[in-house]
Amino acid sequence: MNGDLAARDKRAFDASAARARAERLHPTTEPRWVRYTLITVALLFLAGFLVVPLVSVFVQAFSKGVAFYLSALADPDAVSAIELTLLTAAIAVPLNVVFGLAASWAIAKFEFRGKSLLITLIDLPFSVSPVIAGLVYVLLFGAQGWLGPWLDSHNVQIIFAVPGIVLATVFVTFPFVARELIPLMQAQGADEEEAARVLGASGWQIFRRVTLPNVKWGLLYGVILCNARAMGEFGAVSVVSGHIRGSTNTMPLHVEILYNEYNFAAAFAVASLLALLALVTLGLKLLAERKLDQQSGESAAPRAASPAVPE
């Protein structure tokens, strides 16, 4: 009888200890009021700092009616700003894709001297203010800059022209593609590339048929972020553009000019296009994240299920 009681007490103690251990390890065992409080605070924060400002942009944009909204977007200066923004993104994003693929492939697949320095330089735009980046280009290519007299003698204008805007945009956006691809390529390793090399594939065939398909969703994710930053960049572009209305103003700069002129409805009309871009970017970003997670799970499943090789 005493043995049965002792065994029952031991089982009860073990069960309570297991429950306590599970409660300590499981992240969702907080009291209900704690969870509801955290969720409420998060929702209020999102509503106050994201949803309400986003809704107010569209409310102000249509405050004078649809006709005024369309006329504000059809204004020649607005059309010029939209075209320049699209042109800048169309040049900067492909350049960053080429650089990101080359840099991430070199860093993830090879060992070479200066690898740490290259990684540090890729992160440089994240630590340097965009305004400082624009100022560097002015000091380099401006009329009083290092190369300014030579450019002027050859009738080449970079600052206060489209080339300067493109250069500044490329600088502030080039980490996005590389930073998305480097950890993805490092996690995948080089086994498939090495197998393709053993089978006689050339370097271009390995890249096109092995490496690129494996990173396509990560590449899309980086392109989406890069494009959104390129279209919405303000600081660096503001320094190098010269604010020439109808010529070197991108959409963010045009919004600033309209707002400073107290033309609020037109300013919010143009800003609504950037807000729509943000929403589309968010949707594509979620799609790319989902596909990237599926790809990571599918690539990890065979490795996890494969039997260990006996020694």
From TrEMBL:
Listed GO MF terms: ABC-type sulfate transporter activity
Domain ABC transmembrane type-1: 82-285
Keyword Glycosyltransferase: no
Cellular location(s): Cell inner membrane
InterPro entries with a match to the protein in the record: CysW_permease, MetI-like, MetI-like_sf, Sulph_transpt2
Membrane disposition: Multi-pass membrane protein
Transmembrane segments: 33-59, 79-105, 117-138, 158-178, 218-244, 264-287
PROSITE patterns named among the record's database cross-references: ABC_TM1
NCBIfam families, A to Z: 3a0106s02, permease_CysW
Summary of subunit composition and partner proteins: The complex is composed of two ATP-binding proteins (CysA), two transmembrane proteins (CysT and CysW) and a solute-binding protein (CysP).
PANTHER family: SULFATE TRANSPORT SYSTEM PERMEASE PROTEIN, SULFATE TRANSPORT SYSTEM PERMEASE PROTEIN CYSW
Protein name: Sulfate transport system permease protein CysW
Origin species: Pararobbsia silviterrae
